[in-house]
Here is the input.
Amino acid sequence: MISSQDESIYDLFMLVNQLLNLIPDNIIAATFTTHYTALVPLDPRNLTMGYKKVAERAFKPNMLGLCIFSLILGFAVKQLDSKADTIRLILQETNALVMHVIMGLIKIMPIGMFCWMCVEAINMKSPEKILTQLGWFVATAMFGFSVIWFILYPIIYVAIVRKNPYKFLLNIMPAMIVAFGSSS
Here is the structure.
C-alpha cells in the first residue's frame, strides 16, 4: 500500500513524465508512441466504486521527448568535442541523407498533388456546389483578412505608435506577399 504522501510525489513525477512526456523511457518507442494516464474503473459494472490510474501508450510521436533527447545529445556531443567525432559524423551523414530524401520528395510532390487533385475532381458528385462553397469560403476569408489588416491592425498601430499605419503596411508589403504566397 502506498501512503498518501508517497502517492503525491509519485503523481508529481508521473505528471511530468506521462503528461508532458519530457523524459522518454525508450527513445525508439518515443518516435512512435507517447505516454498518457488512463482512468480505468475498478469495477466495470459499478462505476461508483472509483477509478485507478494506469499508464498507457498512444500511437502518436512523443515530439517533446524527442526534442529534449536531441538537445541533451547535442549538448553532450558539443561538450565532448573531439571525443565525439564519430557520433558527430554519423549525425551529419544521417542529416545529409534525410535532407536528400526530403528534397527528392519535395521535387515530386507537385506531381503527386496534381494527380490527387485530378482523382478528387473525377470523384466529385457536384462540382458546382463544391466550387460555390469554396468561393464563399475564399471570399469570407479574404473579407476577414482585409478587416484585420486594414482596419483592426491600423487602429492598434495608431493607438500604440501614433504614426501612419498605412505607410508601415506599405513598407512590409514584400514580406506579406512572400507570406501569402507560401501560405505561412
Remarks:
- The longest helix spans residues 85-122.
- Residues 22 and 64 are 6 Å apart (CA to CA).
